[in-house]
Amino acid sequence: MAATAAVVRQAGGPLNLEPIEVAAPLSGEVRVRMVGVGVCHTDLVCRDAFPVPMPIVLGHEGSGVVEAVGSGVSGLRVGDHVVLSFNACGHCHNCEHEAAAYCHQFMPLNFGGQRPDGSSALSQRGERIHGNFFGQSSFATYAIARESNTVRVDADLPLELLGPLGCGIQTGAGAALNSLGMKAGLSLAIFGGGAVGLSALMAAKAVGAGPLIVVEPNASRRALATELGADAVIDPKAGADVLAVIREHAGGGVHRAFDTTGIPAVIATAAEALLPNGLLGLVGVSPMDATLPVNIMSMIMRGIGIKAILEGDSQPQVFIPRLLQLYREGKFPFDRLIRTFPFEHIEAAIHASEDGSVIKSVLRF
Ligand SMILES: [Zn+2]
Ligand SMILES: [Zn+2]
User: Fold this and answer.
1) CA distance linking residue 273 with residue 262, whole number of Å
2) Residue 353 C-alpha to ligand 1 middle, in angstroms?
3) Is residue 175 within 8 Å of 309, Cβ to Cβ?
4) Which ligand is nearest to the CA of 108?
5) pTM: predicted TM-score of the whole model, two decimal places
6) Distance separating alpha carbons of residues 212 and 210, to the nearest angstrom
7) Exposed/middle/buried for 8, CB within 10 Å: 0-12, 13-18, 19+?
8) Whole-number average pLDDT of the chain
9) Hey, what's the torsion of the CAs at 216, 221, 225, 227, to 10 degrees?
10) What is the DSSP string of 117-156?
């Protein structure tokens, strides 16, 4: 099938809209007509430096309508509204124990640019275009996904906005609810008020946790964090002692801390902000050679745990419907993070994400 895709041909971009061919779905696959797709930081990391094969079609927060199903697909039909999430093998130890985000094949299945059999569903006049990015490559009008990473959603929901539930929003909300176990009576300090951090905030608020503190240098993001339920916001660039302010607002420290920045000095503050038996969650993209800047004896004497988190420890088939239920109840207004752009304006959407003017850019088709 003829499609239009944003193809990256060299590290650093650009993402050129080009005509491509999308193959028919193989066994276990579906072809999805894209309706919306979010721009996630990982797309930009892969455009710039992370070793994915090129030319490639990125995009991994897709939402759309099933247009064709391959053999062996039993749970999806043509016309279903779906959200696409990360890819996993389904049969390794972690996949079999509800930890698919840590699939032993996560790297090749999500970053390898090809199906497990070595083929690509994407081509251009016979030339191979790498696809299968996060089991979707959804910066395109049509995408091939697997039934296993395709989550059916109700048709009355705003489909064009749902794609980020498959990665960034799921990562933040899942970190709060799944990885850090937020619940009433637990306090949380969130470092970074982007899409992941604010999703963690909304999820923690939805389950009655608190106090919730957001550390974020961007004034408009701090204001939004307050509207979304933060009990305190801190500007780390205003000269205040962030650690002291957190302790003051949270009765001496927090039960949970969540870093989305990947900045070692920020992680050091997050670790020190924790009360005894506290837990630190890490999701930020750090420099490749960065190491943890924590004082080991300080950690041991307080019994601090550290959890590096992928995809919010989510099982997308269970967790995305749970988030949508909270959204329906008005407890998880993730749409407030989103600004939409036409697919043709993908470079503008990426630029708005990079300069911080938009929290979550979503492309509409
Ligand atoms: Zn697996
Ligand atoms: Zn992502």
Assistant:
1) 16
2) 31
3) yes
4) 1
5) 0.96
6) 5
7) buried
8) 97
9) 150
10) TS--SEEETTEEEB--GGGT--SBSEEEEEGGGEEEE-TT
Distance 41 CA to ligand 2 centre (A): 6
Residue 151, token pair as written in the block? 């989550």
Q: Please state, in angstroms and rounded to a whole number, the distance separating the CA atoms of residues 296 and 308.
A: 17
Compute the distance from residue 27 Cα to the ligand 2 centre, in Å: 26
Q: What spacing in Å lies between the alpha carbon of 60 and ligand 1's midpoint?
A: 18
Residue with tokens 């470079």: 347
Going from the Cα of 45 to the center of ligand 2, the distance in angstroms, rounded, reads: 10
Please say whether the beta carbons of 323 and 343 come within 8 A: no
What is the mean predicted confidence (pLDDT) over 255-264? 97
CB atoms within 10 A of CB 359: 23
**H or E segment and range at residue 247:** helix 242-249
Domain positions in the chain are 2-166+333-364, 172-310
The tokens for 139 are 């910066």
Find the 99 Cα to ligand 1 centroid distance in Å. 8
Superfamily designation of domain 172-310:
NAD(P)-binding Rossmann-like Domain (3.40.50.720)
CA of 275 to the centre of ligand 2 (A): 30
Assigned token pair, 147: 């039934």
Among the bound ligands, the one closest to the CA of 84: 2
Mean pLDDT is lowest, of 77-81, 166-170, 172-176, 353-357, for 353-357
Q: What number of CA atoms fall less than 13 Å from residue 95's CA on the CB side?
A: 14
Q: Answer whether the bond into residue 53 is a cis peptide, omega within 30°.
A: no
CATH for 2-166+333-364 is: 3.90.180.10
Find, among 69, 72, 103, the residue nearest to 89 by Cα: 103
How big, in percent rounded to 5, are the helix, strand and coil portions of the chain? 35, 25, 40
Tokens 């949508």 belong to residue: 324
**Residue pLDDT, tens place only, 112-131:** 999 999 999 999 999 999 99
CA-based nearest residue to 250, from 195, 299, 203, 204 = 204
Q: Which ligand is the nearest neighbour of the Cα of 116?
A: 1
